[in-house]
Structure formats: C-alpha cells, structure tokens
C-alpha cells in the first residue's frame, strides 16, 4: 500500500461542540479522538464501488416525474470537485437534498412550518463528477426556513451535499449557501465554521453559467482531502 | 498546480434531520445477495446521546472488506486476494425514528494487512452522522469471538485498554443461519465509544 491521505485539518471544520447550535450539546464526543495509522481500511472507500449506481438524475426541476415543472427561481449549480492540491477528482457520487422555493422540505418530519409543498418538486438529486471533476445540477433556489434552535431562528437558504469520494477519509457531508444572505450572521450552523473557512461554503453568482431567458447560474467548487 | 494552501478543504456541516429524502433508501443496509461469499452476520444496536437517549435520526455508513479480506477499491490492488463480484462492502442505514435501532445485514470480513506489518483483526468501519453533529464521527466494529486476533490488532492495542471494549461487539445470538453482533454507539460519559481521527 502506498497511498495515504493528508491528515484531517480540524481547524478548517466546525468543532464537534458548538453550544449556540443546541443539538451539538449532547451529540458531540467528549473525549479526544484517537489517532489512527491509515491502512487499507481508511484509504479505500465506497465512492468507486457506488458511483456506478447513479442514474442521470441531476434535474430537480422535473425529476418528480409528474410531467410538471417545479416552481421557483430556476438555478444551475455547477463546479469542480478538487483535492487540496487542485487536482480534479472524477467519479465522485454527489447526492443533494433541499427545501423547495418556499423553504418547505418534502419530508414527513416537516410538519411545523405552514409553507406550501410543491407536488412537482421532490428536492433530491444525484450526479457523478466527470473526468474533469465537474458536476452540474439544475434546480430551483430553496427558500430559508424556520427551525427550533432559538426564538425566531431561520436557516439561510442552502442545499445539502453528500460526497462519496475516493476514500473513507474523504467522506464529506456539507451545505452550500447562496451569496449575500442576511441570515448568515444569525445562523449558528453557518457560524460554527471557523471564520477563515466560511466563504468556502458560499456559491458565487456566475453570469457565464447563467442561460439567457432560462436560468441563473451559480458556481461552487468543493475541495476534498488529497493524497500525501 | 499550486500548493495545498490555495485549496483549503470544504468545511463539514451537519447532515440535518431530512437526509432520508435522498440517503438510505430501502435495502441500503443489506450488503449481501444470495451469491455473496461469506458467513452471514447482522450488526445491530442503538446510538445514544450524552443523556443516553436514543439518537433516532442518525445516519450510519458501513465500509468493510469481503470475506477474503479484500476491499472493492482500486487502492487495494492485491490480486492474490479474490474480489467478490457480489459484494461492494458498503451499506447505509438510518436509525429507526420510533425505536432508535439500526442494523446491517452483511458478512464477516476477512483480515486485512496493516502498514506496520501483520494482519488487522476482522473489523468494519462505521461513519456516524446526525442532526446535531457538525462533523462525521469514525469508529470501528470488532468481533468478540476473534479474541486472539483482537489481542494483537495494532489499532485496538493503540486504544487505552479501559476503552477497548467499546469497539468490540459481542455475539448475542446465532440461530444457525445468521450470527447477530450487538454494537451500541455512545456519545459522552465514561463509556463513550472510541472515535478515531481518521
């Protein structure tokens, strides 16, 4: 075995315990993590094994299969998956889920927020990065939504991203945000990210991606750990 | 290309309460098909928070070698150890919202080598995430009936002896067709599960 991955840089990630996000108080490890020497168990992983399972289901505006189209601001989300050295990472399975344009999730647990559901929008998609590490989704921009963390708490608009990359060590679940959201300052989940790294979660508006008379374009690159 | 400093890693965020919209579809916790080689086992248990309440909305992801000890991955290029075309080694399970229970139907993995030499005891890797977890937590499941191999496993023996038991699943049932191992995951407290800095 020759390949190993760079150590996880904890200073680039939220702490396990971030008290302003109440859910972390009882769901965070209290003892220090135990270091592990990377073996085949860590430098292999499910990405290559599972990426072949995807279908081309990257159009969330129509993939409800109703024949209708989702309501909302049609948005293209695209970018590259790179490693820390700037090399593209192909064959990454990207799965996303999100609220609809009104901020409502198509999920049975979402019962408190009286915003309308959209029968033509499931809010889920998947795709696989190509040889240049590129991915692309067509969706509608999600709305902000309230949650119970504190009085009058609202999450900034975001899309959940799950990436099964080249190894167990590169597993990433994160959230992509939209530029200039006034809720950033008020959201403990966004604020849990160390200040120097927060901008990495925010997409940029890209007029080159925007399609005239059709959809706005946003660009967001994702960086995974690289090999040593 | 430029150095690592220009490409800082994308920070982790919580998987939140709604991941089952996309992740953990029906049957994703079943790793076996009739053709899969190996001893059928079920790994089951609960995930507990710091108050020892069930975490009823956890995402558990399991990754393991096949019965011969080979990973279905290009980085494991040991051609003398067979791949199993009926086994990827990956499964996912959402803990049950009513009972908090999780389970995986899989096979007992074979031993895999360690870079410092020798073989590791049979084990599976688990990644646990949930609402309220901003980062993934990595742990391993070892098997109590592999006592000899466990005693010399380089990862287990790197863990303080008082905590090793949190990584070892007892064989709680065996009806002749499937062996059941119990593996609970606990956050906080004196008996907190060992989590690794992977």
Please provide a written account of the structure.
The complex is a heterodimer of chains A (228) and B (198). Chain A is mostly beta strands and 228 residues long. Chain A is 6% helix and 25% strand. Chain A has one domain (10-224): Protocatechuate 3,4-Dioxygenase, subunit A. Chain A has three helices and twelve strands; from the N terminus they run E-H-H-E-E-E-E-E-E-E-E-H-E-E-E. In chain A, the strands form three sheets. In chain A, strands 2, 5, 10, 11 and 12 form a five-stranded mixed beta sheet that branches. In chain A, a hairpin with a 5-residue loop joins strand 6 (145-147) and strand 7. The longest helix of chain A is centred in the N-terminal third of the chain and has 6 residues, at 46-51. Chain A is globular. Chain B has one domain (36-186): Aromatic compound dioxygenase (Protocatechuate 3,4-Dioxygenase, subunit A, Sandwich). Chain B is built from two helices and eleven strands; from the N terminus they run E-E-E-E-E-E-H-H-E-E-E-E-E. Chain B has helices at 147-151, 161-164, and strands spanning 40-48, 58-63, 90-94, 101-107, 123-130, 137-143, 168-169, 171-174, 179-182, 185-186, 196-197. In chain B, strands 1, 4, 8, 9 and 10 form a five-stranded mixed beta sheet that branches. The chains are: A mainly beta (228), B mainly beta (198). The interface between A and B is large, with 83 and 73 residues.
């Amino acid at each position: 075995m020759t390949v190993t991955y760079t150590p996880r840089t904890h200073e680039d990630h939220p702490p396990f315990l971030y008290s302003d996000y109440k859910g972390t108080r009882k769901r965070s490890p209290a003892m220090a993590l135990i270091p592990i020497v990377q073996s085949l168990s860590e430098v292999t992983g499910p990405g290559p094994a599972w990426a072949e399972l995807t279908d081309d289901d990257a159009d969330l505006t129509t993939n409800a299969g109703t024949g209708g189209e989702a309501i909302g601001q049609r948005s293209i989300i695209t970018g590259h998956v790179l490693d820390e050295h700037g090399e593209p990472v192909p064959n990454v399975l990207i799965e996303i889920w999100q609220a609809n344009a009104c901020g409502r999730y198509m999920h049975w647990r979402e019962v408190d927020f009286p915003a309308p559901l959209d029968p033509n929008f499931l809010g889920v998609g998947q795709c696989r990065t190509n040889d240049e590490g590129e991915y692309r989704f067509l969706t509608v921009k999600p709305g902000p939504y309230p949650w119970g963390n504190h009085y009058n708490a609202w999450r900034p608009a975001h899309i959940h991203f799950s990436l099964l990359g080249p190894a167990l060590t590169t597993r990433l679940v994160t959230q992509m945000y939209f530029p200039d959201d006034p809720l950033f300052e008020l959201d403990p989940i966004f604020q849990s990210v160390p200040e120097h790294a927060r901008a990495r979660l925010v997409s940029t508006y890209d007029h080159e991606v925007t399609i005239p008379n059709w959809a706005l374009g946003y660009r967001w690159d994702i960086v995974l750990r690289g090999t040593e | 290309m430029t150095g690592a400093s220009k490409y800082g890693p994308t920070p982790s965020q919580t998987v939140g309460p709604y991941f089952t919209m996309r992740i953990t579809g029906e049957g994703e916790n079943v790793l076996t098909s009739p053709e899969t080689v190996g001893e059928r086992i079920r790994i089951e248990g609960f995930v507990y928070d710091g108050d020892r309440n069930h975490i009823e909305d956890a995402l558990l992801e399991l990754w393991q070698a096949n019965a011969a000890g080979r990973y279905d991955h290009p980085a494991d290029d040991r051609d003398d150890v067979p791949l199993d075309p009926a086994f990827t080694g990956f499964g996912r399970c959402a803990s049950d919202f009513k009972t908090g229970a999780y389970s995986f139907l899989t096979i007992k993995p074979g031993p895999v080598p360690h870079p410092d030499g020798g073989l590791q005891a049979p084990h599976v890797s688990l990644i646990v995430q949930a609402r309220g977890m901003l980062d993934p937590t990595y742990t391993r499941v070892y098997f109590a009936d592999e006592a000899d191999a466990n005693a010399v496993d380089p990862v287990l023996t790197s863990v303080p002896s008082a905590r090793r038991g949190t990584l070892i699943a007892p064989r709680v049932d065996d009806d002749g067709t499937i062996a059941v191992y119990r593996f609970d995951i606990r956050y906080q407290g004196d008996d907190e599960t060992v989590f690794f800095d992977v």
